[in-house]
Design goal:
InterPro entries: BRO1_dom (IPR004328), BRO1_sf (IPR038499), BROX (IPR038898)
Order of helices and strands: EEEHHHEEEEHHHHHHH
Helix content: 55-70%
Strand content: 5-15%
Family: Belongs to the BROX family.
CATH class: Mainly Alpha
Protein name: BRO1 domain-containing protein
Largest sheet: 3 strands, antiparallel
Strand order of the largest sheet: 1-4-7
Structural class: mainly alpha
Low-confidence stretches: 102-114
Shape: elongated
Length: 366
């Protein structure tokens, strides 16, 4: 499968002090929110690419901090605490720098890339605790996606798909967090609904890709495989539409590498869909239509000429070679035996998708 690690946002250390130590009513255990935040900071500063154990540990740390944050926000929003809360948050100096502006290792770990490419990656400071919550949830979603990629490497397809679905659910939830009073929002891609929405759809596309690959291993019918793979392409198209929306002021800063990953993912599964549709048509005796579908697939694949990652290029090239080999085989069979007319492209059956992967809604841990 194609892989692309989205960079984690960076933050500066903040210290809550002793004010927000609290004790669990049931276990009588004392929790220190400063210590919990420090653990999240440490997780952000270490690499966990492809290492499931580290990702799982990071997720536990982040989830615990989210619970503490929710407790603190609810506590601070009580009318009796508003005055002291306002003074307290001003002193915290919550600062984040967009991870989408940072360098990220490629899937083979050799080269560096960016999703967004501004001249600098300044830290943005806010006095709103919802800003902190938003960013922590965003990281939680990215870590779930990393978990999904790690599980794919272990061939645990079911759990990998579930992790992608969970990540999509968190991104969907983050889209809905209110931030009307946050300034300079256009400078911070993580805070924009189009970016969060596109990442939600990207996770669903990746989860569907895992599902389609698993279906291939099980020997699922070619007609269903064609629909599953094209479902990936449909998810990718929706993600592209969100990134290119008129309300997304970050679109001009999108790097060619990130766009290449998204487009390669969509093109690869469109190619796979065409291959399986042709296989289904051939099994039904429609060899002429099958050849036409394969010719169309190869023609569209040839339009994909630039790749920002050698691994992606290799995966795509191998799939294109498989389709070309199948096309040559069918053409030879048709010339020697079947002699069926090959329809014009306008008369060929269109690719149909079935998007079966649904997000798992994120349940707020209040």
């Amino acid at each position: 499968m194609l892989r692309y690690f989205i960079p984690i946002p960076k933050t500066k250390q903040i210290v809550f002090g002793n004010v927000f130590k609290f004790t669990d009513k049931e276990t009588k255990t004392e929790f220190n929110i400063s210590l919990s935040r420090k653990q999240v900071e440490d997780s952000n500063n270490r690499s966990s690419h492809g290492i499931e154990a580290i990702v799982r540990e990071d997720l536990v740390r982040i989830k615990a901090y989210i619970i503490f944050l929710r407790y603190m926000i609810d506590h601070m929003n009580k009318p009796c605490n508003l005055e002291i809360s306002n003074r307290f948050t001003k002193n915290l100096k919550i600062q984040w720098s967009s991870g989408l502006n940072l360098d990220c290792k490629s899937s083979n770990g050799l080269s560096l890339a960016r999703i967004f490419q501004p001249k600098s990656t300044p830290f943005f400071q806010s006095e709103d605790m919802l800003f902190e919550l938003h960013m922590i949830l965003f990281i939680y979603a990215l870590k779930l996606r990393e978990k999904a990629m790690a599980l794919v490497s272990k061939a645990d397809m079911v759990e990998s798909t579930n992790a992608y679905r969970e990540a999509a659910g968190v991104f969907d939830y983050v889209c809905k967090i209110g931030h009307d009073d946050w300034s300079s929002i256009e400078k911070f891609p993580e805070l924009t609904s189009p970016v969060c929405s596109s990442l939600k759809l990207l996770c669903l596309a990746e989860g569907q890709a895992v599902t389609a690959n698993k279906a291939e291993e099980k020997g699922t019918s070619a007609s269903l495989l064609a629909k599953l793979h094209y479902g990936v392409t449909q998810f990718v198209a929706e993600a592209n539409a969100s990134l290119s929306s008129k309300t997304n002021t970050q679109v001009k800063k999108l790097s060619s590498r990130f766009l290449d990953y998204v487009s390669t993912l969509g093109a690869l599964h469109e190619l796979k869909s065409g291959k399986h549709l042709a296989e289904s048509l051939e099994s039904e005796g429609e060899l002429g239509e099958a050849i036409g579908v394969l010719r169309r697939a190869v023609g569209r694949a040839k339009m994909k000429t630039k790749f920002r990652d050698d691994t992606w290029k290799s995966i795509f090239k191998k799939e294109r070679e498989k389709v070309t080999t199948m096309m040559n085989k069918y053409e030879c069979l048709n010339k020697t035996m079947m002699l069926q007319r090959i329809p014009l492209e306008a008369d060929l059956p269109t690719l149909q998708g079935d998007k079966i992967v649904k997000l798992i809604p994120y349940i707020d841990t209040k």
